[in-house]
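Duplicate of #3305? Posting structure anyway:
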């Protein structure tokens, strides 16, 4: 059984507690959806007591002066003690990796920015190599099997100061991961500074995305960012099938969590979880295919209705519509529409239907410019590709009206663009 340790200890209490057992690395498997097998393992610190009880010692490494309430000099000594334990665990993990029969597996090693900064402040950035690099060379491990996982710890200094050390790891062939994206403070700056190979997404953000659309959109954006920059996403803390499906929806290449296994005292076989992954991936795509069919059916139905509008619509010279009330009778899901010129300047007012079916004309919106909206530029792009087709936007949330909408748009008479906002059912 693995239990949590007590955080609030004095240095002496920490040392006495750690002396009661054996400190060893445990390994939690990280799985690849791409290969449906073990991609690597995260090295996690554990203490094993004589009675067989196993406890995590993560909070030991997180203990700060405010947690422990002792003098600065004593705290410095404690920090050195923390680093010595960290180095011993890392050496043990690297030794086990060197003898791992899964020769392609990766080892994820947690290193905090504070420890990196202490290395740089010690004047070692251009002289003695970091201990991890030295041990990898000593054990004959290929550097591309090591993933340096930069934890989310806050440091007072500018993160730019860590770039030379990160570059050193990369030059030796190590991979870089950012840990716990979204867990505490924003670490989007770390993506730009460290240019990681992997981003580990915090489990709480994944779980919140199951109930809050705002978190879902954040993860979609992160997925697109990762794809654009060539960064792989690893979702950690996956415990349920729903969480796994959600992670896969956001482009998770790698997975980690109790759904597959807890941290183990030895690295598992590479193919241990292949059957489980096959089943889960197949079930995910069965569900997604049905969802896609439903979305396509919805789009086709609405597009057919709106196509009818396009055939009958008439414009005044200034871009306003000759008849607007009839458009709302085509389908109850039509919420709002307006007309712009080819530069995005609004030529008509907003025509909007309220919940009580009252039609409201918002004349103050005339002359607004909508070229800044992503769907406007997307319309220009798609209309050049297929000039006679309606362009359909991605779902988006209208903050003012608190509605989920999709916009259908089409260019008419080579002068005007008609935008029709349609209510979109929640996922």
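Output from current build:
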């Amino acid at each position: 059984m693995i239990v949590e340790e007590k955080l609030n200890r004095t240095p002496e209490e920490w040392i006495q507690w750690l002396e009661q057992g054996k400190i060893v690395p445990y390994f939690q498997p990280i799985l690849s959806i791409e290969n449906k097998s073990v991609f690597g393992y995260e090295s996690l610190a554990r203490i094993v007591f004589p009675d067989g009880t196993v406890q995590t010692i993560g909070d030991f490494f997180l203990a700060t002066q405010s947690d422990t309430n002792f003098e600065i000099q004593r705290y410095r000594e404690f920090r050195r003690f923390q680093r010595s334990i960290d180095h011993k665990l890392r050496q043990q993990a690297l030794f086990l990796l060197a003898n791992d029969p899964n020769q392609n597996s990766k080892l994820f090693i947690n290193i905090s920015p504070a420890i990196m900064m202490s290395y740089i402040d010690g004047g070692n950035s251009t002289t003695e190599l970091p201990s991890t690099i030295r041990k990898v060379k000593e054990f004959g491990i290929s550097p591309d099997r090591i993933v340096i996982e930069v934890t989310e710890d806050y440091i007072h200094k500018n993160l730019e100061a860590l770039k030379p050390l990160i570059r050193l790891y990369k030059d030796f062939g190590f991979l870089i991961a950012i840990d716990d994206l979204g867990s505490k403070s924003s670490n989007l700056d770390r993506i730009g500074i460290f240019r990681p190979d992997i981003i580990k997404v915090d489990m709480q953000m994944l779980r919140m995305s199951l109930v809050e659309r705002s978190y879902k959109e954040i993860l979609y954006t992160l997925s697109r960012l990762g794809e654009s920059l060539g960064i792989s996403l690893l979702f950690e803390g996956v415990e349920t099938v729903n969480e796994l499906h959600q992670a896969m929806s956001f482009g998770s290449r790698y997975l980690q969590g109790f759904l597959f296994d807890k941290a183990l005292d030895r690295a598992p076989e590479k193919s241990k979880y292949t059957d489980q992954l096959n089943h889960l991936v197949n079930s995910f795509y069965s569900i997604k295919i049905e969802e896609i069919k439903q979305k396509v059916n919805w789009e086709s139905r609405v597009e057919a209705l709106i196509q009818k509008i396009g055939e009958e619509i008439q414009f005044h010279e200034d871009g306003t519509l000759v008849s607007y009330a009839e458009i709302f009778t085509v389908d109850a899901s039509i919420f709002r529409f307006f007309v712009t010129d080819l530069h995005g300047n609004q030529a008509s007012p907003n025509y909007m239907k309220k919940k009580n079916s009252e039609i409201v004309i918002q004349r103050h919106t005339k002359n607004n410019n909508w070229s800044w909206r992503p769907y406007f530029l997307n319309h220009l792009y798609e209309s050049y590709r297929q000039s006679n087709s309606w362009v359909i936007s991605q779902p988006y949330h209208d903050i003012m009206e608190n509605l989920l909408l999709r916009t259908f748009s089409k260019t008419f008479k080579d002068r005007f663009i008609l935008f029709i906002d349609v209510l979109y059912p929640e996922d």
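Confirmed duplicate; merging threads. Residues 294-423 form a domain with the Beta-Lactamase fold (CATH 3.30.450.20). The longest helix spans residues 274-312.
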